[in-house]
């Protein structure tokens, strides 16, 4: 059997194999891969040449455990593949890798059994810190993380004693209501979700309160989930009656996309001449020619950057008081909402 075949059969290349090929000690290999360690240049060159020939990579996990620092950072969420959350998880993963961490995605699932499995995975691997995304997990999970002494960064939710990154949901929802009111619309709709996160609940509440304070009526409909199908279900409720809304605020873009397709294909409405729609998130699909959705933008890269800063702050000084960073949701105007109402649809 060739050396290459033996390596494949044995699994990962070991430091001992590198030492044998280079003709040096095992400790010399360790020093060669440790920044600042004392090692003769010619010895280091031998080690690096042997490592390159064998395809050797340092076992960072083992090294971190020896130093009582795993470098793992847990990203805890439910349905990480859906909507804006998928882009936020991707941005967080990239930011953590750039920092030298190992992102560890924990999907809490939807059942008690799945939640317990998620807890076992996260705390069993001794993650260095945990970033928890909006809506998941329950407060009991957060408390268990605290008991294990983990630095926690919360995105889009409120927990006492934790660092937070929040988007200005209230400001955006209020702006959406005022935008519709200035355009002369008085019959408004809200497309929400029964499985709402704290962020979505806030958007629903502030939009409804603001619209009614401006003298507008508000019809509220919610899909089962915060997704495309949920938007279709909300649209069916909002647009099937004789007194349809003139404009609808959707609590996220996936709901807005489902609602737009129902409005055009099933209800036969022209967008925006007969119905104005505003979403929230600015996922890539919002800019597609099929939708051209007016929406509020959350920047996943900026949220990830701020989350890393919060994590580093907490790791450097665990005794600091909790910090809250609030980011603006920038209004992005496209073609799904008009500033002036259609006279034929009053």
UniProtKB/TrEMBL annotation:
Keywords for the protein's UniProt record, in alphabetical order: DNA-binding, Repressor, Transcription, Transcription regulation
Transmembrane segments: none
Molecular function as annotated in GO: DNA binding
Domain HTH lacI-type, first and last residues per copy: 13-67
Matches recorded under InterPro entries: HTH_LacI, LacI/GalR-like_sensor, Lambda_DNA-bd_dom_sf, Peripla_BP_I
Pfam families: LacI, Peripla_BP_3
Identification of the protein by name: LacI family DNA-binding transcriptional regulator
